[in-house]
Every structure is written in C-alpha cells, then in structure tokens.
Amino acid sequence: MLKRDLPRAGAPLSSSRMEHSIYEFPEIFRRVHKEQPREIAEEVAFLRGVFSRHLKRPVRRLLDLAAGDSPHGQLFASDGIAVVGVDRSPTMIAAGRAEARRRGLAKLRFHRRAIEKFHLAEKPFDAAIFMSETFPVMTRNEAILDHFRSVGALVRRGGIYCIDIDRMHTPRIPRKQRMWRRRKLQVGAAEVEVWADNQPMPWYSGVHSIFDLQSVIRFSNRTVATRDLVPVRYTLPCTLDLAARASAMFRLETVYTDLSFTTPLEECDRRWLGVLRRV
Length: 279
Known about the structure:
Elements: H1 26-32, H2 37-54, E1 61-65, H3 71-78, E2 82-87, H4 90-103, E3 108-112, E4 125-130, H5 141-152, E5 155-166, E6 181-187, E7 190-200, E8 207-218, E9 223-233, H6 237-246, E10 250-257, E11 271-278
Parallel strand pairs: 1-2, 1-4, 2-3, 4-5
Antiparallel strand pairs: 5-11, 6-7, 7-8, 8-9, 10-11
C-alpha cells in the first residue's frame, strides 16, 4: 500500500485500496476482537460439561464449524477426540494445520468449505460446535436451512449441535451512523490501528446491523489495510429453534447463558449457547 492511501489520524479508512481481511492474520484478529487467552479453555471446559449432560456416550468425533484455526479443536484433539474443522479461509486453515503439526495433533484435520452449504466425505460425528458467537453472520433463511441440513447430514441421530450466540439488545434504527470507535494495540512487532462501527439496517431486513471493522497494520517491512463488513442477524432462542425444526434435522433442547448451567436466560449478560438435538 502506498503511503498516500493511509488514513489521516482519527479517520476511518477508504475502501478504494483495501484488498485484505483482518482474518488473514490469526494472531492479530484475536487481539482486535479482545479475545483473552483463557477464554478458549473456559469454553472448552463448559462444552465438556454440556457433552456429559446431553450425551449418553463420550464424544469421539467432533465437527467444528466456522473453525478458523480451531483453537477449541486443538484442546479437544489433545484429549484424543478426532476433530474436523470446517472454514472458508485458506489462511486460517493453514494456521490451524501448522499449529496441529507443531503440537503433534494428528486427530485434528481441516476442510475448506463455505459454512452455508457443504458436503464432507466423513464418518458421522457425535457432536458439532459453532463457537465464537459467529452464527448470526448467516442472514438469509435459505442459508440457515442449508447449513442445518449440511451439518445434520454429518451428525449421527441423537447427537448434539452446540451454537454460541451473542446476546443482542433490542433492535432499533439509529437516526444516524454512530461515531467511529478507534483504538490502537501492539501485537508482537506489529502496530495495529482499528476503526469499528455498526451500520444500522432496516427493521424489516432481519439483520440487526452490519459491523464495519477496518484496520491499518504496520509491520516492520510493510503496511497493510484491512476491511471486513460483517452482517449480524437478530437471533433469539425461539428463532433458532424455529429454523432448526424447519430444517427437519434438529430441535432446540435447551439454552445455557454466559457459560453457566444455572443462570436464567432473562439474566443473560453477554452470550447464550443453544443445544440442538439431531432428530
């Protein structure tokens, strides 16, 4: 990128020369999203509890959807579980495979697929997971139904599918776009400047907002600008159950909030986990 293409201080980026996504840089994107190192281990520990509550036999095969480099799968594979990660990003899959080789995790494998509709030549899985609160990026009814049918074809009858979803506030239409939220961080030797905003959507679209995430990453030898536009559908337990039943593959069995087995749904602070049963 040429210097003249970089934004002035405090300004969001122009999209004219942005060809990169923040998800091409696994270590940086986790820091940009404020992910804490302990969070993955806490989520995996909670999922183990979910599996023991809802399955009569141990999970031996696990499908990880929108896996990225599959940090959850790395921990499950270290327990001897055969994990298959599905993601559309070649960069993330390459990072996951490299980490699996480094850690000697022969039971962690990856397939590059779109998450909306896909096919895998794999034996049935005991359970599937969709973590990191990413499920609401599927915004079309057809895409969600295709997704459930694709996953259902791979999960054995009686198996479960755990979907992690961000708690959303009451949908509203702001009078205007909010001010850009800007911050800086250091990731290793790279300096990262981030702009983020939620662009409102019409109430009838079913989409809560579009998350506009832009950054300038200054490495020692180059500077890269990124932009990601992430649509977010307004997803509730009742709409998740409706879509699951409409697919004829799953039904919603229960909901857990904030990685707790006791916190009621009305007290949910940040996120909820839908546990779907393969029918």
